[in-house]
Design goal:
This protein has 470 residues and is mainly β. The protein has 6 helices and 19 strands.
Length: 470
């Protein structure tokens, strides 16, 4: 039976809403579905913690012949500007709007084309970090509001590595400055959301020394990946234990290499099958992995948890680890399309060492529908949910502090987040993305900065992102 365009859109919306309803059954009772937006879904290899908008047509085109001239020597580049205007409208530490942005330069040199080095490649990333951090200054949450927020706002060197591929390009070896968020725990569907936790989980950023080797902090390392076939892939790496080194300012501009501060070892196995449902092909991504860091870690009472302890436990521990799993599956595809349709994901991390990990369990999940409305095949609407459980180790410490100081600081609880978002390509070089987030129990009921007896209230965040490819 033929459907009118209006009825067809309603039919697809009904499918999407039904799946969202099923998803919501698994959310905590206090999680109410909010409303609003998201960025373009990208290939799995694209950086998950930033909105890299790579398009065949850019605002400046061939740059007056520069791109074509560089291509003769194997040099290619992308230059993207992400600009966010985002604000906390209710709750949190304070209300207000800020700007944050990122100018992202990615340069690749094909050494075979440049100097005849078969299988060789050089990559460089440069960041221009802009604006303020809403999560820290206004919301008080562990989950960072946008995936380009970073302090301080400065130019910075990101990744810079040399790669050699072997065995018909099945084996790749990279050495240099690396960012783990480009290689591990990546979910193609989760990549569409604005909040940074849907990329490199903010649970790890909170737990790991120096916030871990993720945007915008690269660290020296060696990485190898091997494709057994189209379905199976293994990635492993060793990196410096912290991107900061012994001096916390050593990575400020990304030009001082931190070494000798522990070793971060990583292993991930990925299975990427294509399931068939009738005449539909539904790709999936299934991953298991884990990491171990030999660097010295402080007791959680010394962490920046939003809580001040008059008698923190001045103990350090050698070694820290986490394990994780990822499920990302296409659920349905529209007729005669390999991309339009509904996708779902779920990720979980477990960091069991309660005395040195501020967050022990982390979970996120969500749905994204590509091309919900007729005539808009590349638009994406998505709903995501994230949850982080704070270590129970803090409970006795907070209780003791309350007795000692006569305060009533709230016990630490889980922090949760809902994001509803929509991304719309306006032109080949411009995409606009309004988004809405609801942050529940920011900081795990961390106290207000000026009142230790009052928990930071849940916050309502709205924003608009613009991404321009130059």
């Amino acid at each position: 039976m033929h459907m009118s365009p209006k009825n067809n859109a309603l039919h697809k919306l009904a499918i999407c809403l039904a799946c969202l309803a099923i998803l919501s059954l698994g959310l905590p009772a206090q999680a109410q579905i909010a409303s609003s937006s998201l960025p373009r879904m990208t290939k799995e290899e694209v950086v998950p913690t930033r909105s890299d908008f790579v398009a065949p047509n850019t605002l400046l085109g061939d740059w007056g012949g520069l791109r074509s001239a560089l291509d003769q020597y194997g040099i290619g580049f992308t230059l993207n500007q992400t600009s966010d205007y985002v604000g906390n409208t209710h709750g949190g530490i304070q209300q207000g709007f800020v700007y944050d942005g990122l100018l992202d330069l990615e340069v690749d040199i094909d050494l075979n084309k440049a100097v005849g080095w078969k299988g060789g490649k050089v990559h460089f990333t440069g960041y221009g970090i802009q604006g303020q951090n809403l999560a820290t200054q206004y919301v008080g949450s562990v989950f960072t509001t946008t995936n380009v927020e970073a302090n301080p706002s400065i130019p910075k060197v990101g990744e810079f590595w040399l790669e050699q591929t072997l065995l018909d390009n099945r084996l790749g070896i990279r050495a240099g400055l690396l960012e783990a968020d480009r290689y591990y725990i990546i979910s193609p569907t989760a990549n569409v959301f604005v909040n940074s936790t849907f990329g490199f989980p903010d649970s790890w950023e909170t737990n790991m020394p120096g916030s871990g080797p993720g945007y915008p902090n690269a660290t020296p390392g060696l990485l190898a990946s091997y494709d057994f076939n189209d379905d199976w892939k293994v990635t492993a790496s060793v990196m410096n234990g912290t991107p900061n080194g012994p001096d916390t300012t050593s990575s400020q501009y990304g030009i001082t290499l931190p070494i000798g501060t522990g070793t971060l070892s990583w292993l991930e196995t990925a299975f990427s099958p294509e399931c068939s449902l009738g005449n539909q092909v539904l790709p999936g991504y299934y991953k298991l992995g884990g990491w171990y860091n030999s660097y010295t870690v402080d007791n959680v009472t010394l962490d920046d948890s939003g809580r001040t302890f008059s008698n923190p436990i001045n103990t350090t521990y050698k070694g820290q680890y986490s394990v994780y799993g990822v499920v990302d599956q296409a659920l349905w595809r529209e007729a005669n399309s390999t991309t339009q349709g509904l996708n779902a994901f779920a990720r979980v991390t477990y960091s069991p060492q309660t005395n040195r990990n501020l967050i022990t369990w982390y979970f996120d999940t969500g749905l994204a529908y590509i091309g919900l409305f007729d005539g808009r095949p590349e638009d994406i609407i998505g709903l995501g949910f994230a949850w982080a459980k704070f270590t129970p180790y803090l409970d006795s410490q907070i209780s003791s502090q309350n007795i000692l100081a006569g305060t009533q600081t709230p016990m630490a609880t889980a922090e949760s987040l809902i994001e509803l978002t929509y991304q719309a390509p306006i032109s080949p070089w411009l995409t606009l993305q309004p988004f809405f987030q609801y942050a529940m129990n920011p900081g795990g009921k961390a106290p207000m900065p000026n009142n230790p007896n009052q928990a930071i209230p849940s916050a309502t965040v709205v924003g608009l992102r613009a991404n321009v490819a130059f």
